[in-house]
Amino acid sequence: MKEVVVISGKGGTGKTSITAAFANLAGSDLVLADCDVDAADMHLLMKPDFAEQEDFFSGETARIIQDNCTACGKCFDVCRFKAISVIQGQYIVDPVSCEGCGYCARVCPTETIVNDIPKVGEWYISTIKTQGTMVHAKLNIGADNSGKLVAKVKNEARQIAENLHKGLILVDGSPGIGCPVVSSLSGASLVVLVTEPSVSGLHDLKRVWQLVKNFNLPAGCIINKSDINPQKSKEIMAFLNKNDIPLVIELPYSEQFTTAMTLGKTIVEIEDKQLSELIAKAWNSITNKYI
Question: Which structural domain, as residue segments, surrounds residue 46?
């Protein structure tokens, strides 16, 4: 089983739009995994039915049982995260600030502090408009453990691909280089880096490439909106050549991407022959040359 993981060093490069277009071209031949759980939006383009839904619990959060609390203040004194405050004479834990370290529970003389495992998000298995299967998730606002939720999405996608005898998983990873990106890269057969010709685009491409390089994963690069800054495009090409990163395709800037998103469609579903042919060429290059 092969996994193509599409990531970018920063948001706004067109990563999700390109991944959705790839998924549309592949139809039901693959399992799609949306691992951008912090800001999931693949569902806007792929029209999932949310047929299966399950809550996701992870991490720990302290809770003070008020009936047994003697208000000694020891928990307040030891909490280095300032997650405990006094409200109307009661010691209260702020679940957003609490890191679940358990130190407050350890020092509580009446053992009145417990650690709960909170619900931090939801994950889904859906049939999408291509009649393929998509595994996706949504992390609650301000919740931690996005890397663990990404791992859950990927594991479910692998199980489904195995059960359905699908040889390919397409992953829309998170932007940046944090924990959810590292989790997205686990088990990747090929990493597709999506960048744009801007100062931040080149800077973040270098950062995310260093991450991919550390995992010794094969990679190719798509330069989106390549014509908006020809000088930066040349600098990106020089970086790719220096590091032996194959260029998959250069895509021109087009407002058709925005038009397609407004319609809830991928770029290959609207009448833009040039872009559709370029996206198809990129997907064929990925599947034929690298997979």
Answer: 2-57+121-290
